[in-house]
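Thread: Newbie trying to understand structure tokens

Hi all, I'm a second-year student working on a class project, and my supervisor (Dr. K.) asked me to get a predicted structure for one chain before our next meeting. I've only ever worked with sequences, so writing a 3D structure as a token string is new to me. If someone could post the tokens and maybe explain what I'm looking at, I'd be very grateful. Here's the chain:
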Amino acid sequence: MNSFRKILLTAVFGLALGAVSAQSPEDSVAFANSRWNEVFREEGITVRTCAVRLFNSDQQIVCMEIDPQLYRFAVVQDSLREKVSKLAKIYKADAAINGGFFKVRTPLAIAVGYIQIDCDSVPQLTGNYNGAVAIDTAGRISVIPWNKKMKNDPAYVDLFPDILTAGPLLINQGHVLPKWDETEPRHPRSCIGTRTDESIILLVVDGRQKDADGMALCELARVARWMGMTQALNLDGGGSSALWSRQKGVVNSPCDRGLFSRKERKVCNAITVTKKE
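---
Reply by user tm_fold:
Sure, no problem. This is what the structure looks like when written as tokens:
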């Protein structure tokens, strides 16, 4: 049994009777027994996809596992909104996922929430989010709780040159935070998380498509925990959800449609993954 499968089985069955279980125990069993197809693997990065029926809905999930010993992370944002794939190429990244929330109906890249890059503040509007991606000078990434007072705390803004707030925080210290809510709407979702083995997970759930209903936040949180994440943060979703790799391009199916195929939405910022030299 490979390590990925072991993590799923351990997380799912270890939590099946606990507070993070889904409304139906069949969901945790279905997830544990789901078939993951490997899209590609190279040293330090593996991408897998899964089609599974969960929470009485059809789900298409894409997971990227990253070894932080081999890759460094960064938050990138330009003056104009741009596709995740283009931002990744501009900054010579090996992989990338869409970042935080932003002002719509403008071509300008204006984040909503706190964001700093290389210790410098970039264009943003006030937003109150309870989680953040924090990246230190060595490119190591952490998913942390956040409140608006922290942006004035040198212990954070000096230690972490790159900070991007988003939310809600889905998992903190192994505890699932969103309460179960059967009325919560489903959408495409993006999520970033960490495991106890220090691996970093980029997760995208497709939605608004045939055989891809998307997830509510409470559902996404439980899937993240079943995947072994002990810290997890919801990123911007909907048409913004995009996971890109240098080898395969966009590996999920964005919900926006072009004339002949699905297309990426131009977003405000992205979290990039780049091989260490």
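A couple of things are worth pointing out once you decode it. The CA atoms of residues 183 and 230 lie 26 Å apart. The longest helix spans residues 3-15. Feel free to ask follow-ups in this thread.
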